[in-house]
## 1
Amino acid sequence: MAVEKKILLAVPRGYCAGVDRAVDAVEKALELYGAPIYVRKEIVHNKYVVQTLAARGAIFVSDTDEVPEDARVVFSAHGVSPAVHQAAAVRSLRTIDATCPLVTKVHREAVRFAKNGYEIILIGHRGHEEVDGTYGEAPDSIQIIDGPDEVDALTVKNPDKLVWLSQTTLSVDETMETVARLREKFPNLNDPPSDDICYATQNRQAAVKKIGAAADVMIVVGSANSSNSVRLKEVALEAGADRAYRIDTAAELSEDWFAGVHTVGLTSGASVPDILVREVIEWLKERGFTTVEQVHAAQESVTFSLPKNLRADLLDAGVLDPKARKRTPSPGHTC
């Protein structure tokens, strides 16, 4: 008797509310103002999304000095430092700030703690746009560490007035390991007032943990520069998956990965549209993985309104329902 070949599909997966808002902001800006709309950095870390928006007239640039004066520019979901806002103002750029509100929360925490005389340990990946933006809020008060192995070399001015913050898209387990190591060295370390790692990152990792041990192979859809997608692959292996692969699209799947495999786990990072997951499912179905079981870890209902100035212009133009908050959720998640 043939053994059933199945897909364990993570729920939630894909777009989070912050990504949905940022992508929607670029799409709405193109519809309202027309092309080109400039975007500083990638609006979200996903190749497909960036290429799709570029085809519609979005121009992605590395910094504001590449944007013509008086043009419109969207700041990505990862956030920017005050210096970037100032540089945009000097060039008279019309900005649309699509920073995820959960990243903005971390920025405000950094400003508040620095103002109150705290030294801040920012846990995150150096060079990541989100970390650069948060660091830029209080550079004289912040030190960045990238994981528990960097704790031993850390020195601070006043261990009794110390607080930690984190990048929102990190591995929950590794971040808590880093915090534990920090607390061993600095017993009076303060916690942020609420979790900095966002709900979507935690929920997607929780779903992968439920799948990991049962999966012969785990497939994570997401780009290489997507921190939360890379973390999902790591979480899958830690949870017991025999093997795990991160791909951008179904075109990267290899027949060899599935030789002798009966159970495939499947998820996607928080910046991945569900069409890319559906394409993977179709590829797997064509190879005998016809049963799809959803594995639920959380129900998401978070929504974020569009950036205020864009929303106001859309309302003035009569093209936005005053009650509208976001687009219809993609299949497979409800945020």
Note: The CA atoms of residues 124 and 167 lie 5 Å apart.
## 2
Amino acid sequence: MTNIFPPFDPDDSPRRRRVNQLRSIPVRSIVPNLVTLLALCAGLTSIRMSIELRFDAAFAAIFIAAFLDGIDGRVARFLKSTSRFGAELDSLTDFLNFGVAPAILIYVWALDEIRSLGWIAAMIFAICGALRLARFNVALDDPNRPEWQANYFVGIPAPAGAMTVLLPFYLEQVGVPHGLLTAPLVLFYTLTIGVLMISKFPTWSGKLVGRRIPRESVLPFFVLVVVYVALLLSFPFETLAICTLIYLGLLPVSWSTYHRRLAATPPATSPEAAPHKEP
């Protein structure tokens, strides 16, 4: 009987593919993809909740998708099961979770009040998310790039863009009134975040910070994490609004520190230095 679901791995050569057909696939190889698919389910659920005007549930689904997106790559590296298939699946999932789902939520919540203009703004944000991810997929790292540049992204990453664009929604949940100017202001803000996602604005990522923690800082770190999670569970929208405002406030600082370090970098080390490209 012909197998209607033949195994597929884009990393395999024809010879290697014939060999792989004779052996089973270890479970550890599919666990990261299952995590990614769960994130995709969360994003699709967010779209449904937005259509049903259940905005809290829609946002919760996006938040869950962001959490799963943050761990699937780490799970793949931990289990040594990274693959091109997983990378492509993760990219497509990110587009839906951090491009389409937030755009639908922000449109149904506020932008539909200005009809076609609101829909155009939502589409532009989603398209910017797609372009942001596409640029990451084709980006090649410069082997001569200084290590400090790995601490910066090119533009706002897609997950951060999704959580940042929802700031007006957070503010309404903590008591900011929804008035006649809400939709126009949200339109302008949504377009601004979309442009920042596809721009070359260097944004601090902190990837090089925290890889190792001094031994004396381990216990305070645990306490800070517990306090943050407790605040997030007890006062979710207040915590997210404050964190988003802090993130936006750090953007000029990121720009300044990046260009200051770039000016101090010898030209031979980085002839055309560019921030680290991440989604």
Note: Confidence is low (pLDDT under 50) at residues 269-273.
